[in-house]
Amino acid sequence: MYPPRSVSVLMSGSGVIVEGDSVTLNCISDSNPPALNFSWFKENETSAVGSGQSFSALQSGHFYCQAHNQHGSQRSDAVTVTGEAFINTLLSLHIIHQFGELIMMIFLFQFIMLLVGM
Q1: Which of the four pLDDT bands, split at 50, 70 and 90, describes residue 23?
Q2: Taking phi first (over 0 means left), then psi (-120 to 50 degrees means alpha), and beta for anything else, what does residue 42 get?
Q3: Residue 12: its pLDDT value, please?
Q4: Predicted TM-score of the model (pTM)
Q5: What does the alpha-carbon distance between residue 26 and residue 74 come to, in Å, rounded to a whole number?
Q6: What is the pLDDT, as a whole number, of residue 17?
Q7: Rounded Cα distance, 75 and 97, in Å
Q8: Euclidean distance between CA atoms 81 and 16, whole angstroms
Q9: What share of the chain is helix, strand, coil (3-state, %, to 5)?
Q10: Pairing relation of β-strands 79-83 and 16-17?
């Protein structure tokens, strides 16, 4: 008989929340007797955001579970659930950065052509 150990979270899909959808998280542990109580937390929040072996994350963040049996409890490492809007913002910033580099290269090319033409 022992408390939960090797507690981990399995995430369905890519972990990216598409608008109007959710990501399912499952809490897995090794314990004897088996853990029957599971709590879900979002990092930096004090109260639980869910209970049960499965949890549907409706928003982005870092989530972890805590498995309990009569001998004790243990928490998992946090997993990251990312929102589609966040990924789109990063992609937009990357494209803007790439576009800025292209404009600088065109300007440099024109400057060199101006110097060579003198």
Answers
A1: confident
A2: beta
A3: 77
A4: 0.66
A5: 15
A6: 58
A7: 40
A8: 6
A9: 30, 45, 25
A10: parallel
**C-alpha to C-alpha distance for 51 and 65, rounded to whole angstroms:** 9
| b/e per residue 9-29 (b: at least 16 CB within 10 A) | beeeeeeebeeeeebebebbb
> So where are the chain's domains?
2-117
The CATH number of 2-117, from 3.40.50.720, 2.60.40.10, 2.40.10.350, 3.40.640.10, is 2.60.40.10
- Answer for the pair 3, 72: CB distance below 8 angstroms, yes or no: yes
The pLDDT mean for the chain works out to 79
- 2 CB burial (10 A radius; 0-12, 13-18, 19+): exposed
Q: Return the residue matching tokens 């982005």.
A: 60
Mark out the alpha helices in 1-118 (DSSP H runs).
84-117
Residues 7, 74 contacting (CB under 8 angstroms): yes
Q: Name which of 40-44, 63-67, 73-77, 89-93 the model is least confident about.
A: 89-93
